[in-house]
# Entry
Amino acid sequence: RKEVEQDPGPFNVPEGATVAFNCTYSNSASQSFFWYRQDCRKEPKLLMSVYSSGNEDGRFTAQLNRASQYISLLIRDSKLSDSATYLCVVIGAMDSNYQLIWGAGTKLIIKP
Amino acid sequence: DGGITQSPKYLFRKEGQNVTLSCEQNLNHDAMYWYRQDPGQGLRLIYYSQIVNDFQKGDIAEGYSVSREKKESFPLTVTSAQKNPTAFYLCASTPMPSPVYEQYFGPGTRLTVT
# Structure
């Protein structure tokens, strides 16, 4: 099992729809979780931090489920500009070194 | 404007040559990171540095070397020992030494080795 897994997609979604995807992780001692957005051939940009209590920012909601070891991202009222690849990153510590494990990303295509 | 700069954007080298990728930040961030990204894959950590004159290996450090002589600079050398150096290389930084904060990325360098 990979340390961090994402459904690669692509998710083809009509404009205005709601879409959700998950990111599962294997290290139960992981400390921090983030969602990033990456446009084609560009650098990742932070979308949201993920907390146990959930995190909402406009149309975006992120959740952490420690018991089942996954994080989720929900996008409501999707826009054409939401088309991108969404990456999750899971951060933990092991043997006094940090581990930053990125998922391979989920590609989202919003269609008019 | 504060940010991270990486140069050059595209780099072409012949097999067997060492090449150094530049990463400079003016954010006054403590920690800096180097990743490589291959098509269809997530970012993989090469090296990171939490303070000046100190750095740690990431998951795929073999064939790479780094230095951190100044807080704002973290150059990466891709040596001839790296078996598959062609990739998209991304440099990032975090405000504090711990990576549990948001990472700020540079625009990346696409390295092609033939």
About this structure: Chain A has no helices and eleven strands. Chain A touches chain B through 24 residues (CB under 8 Å).
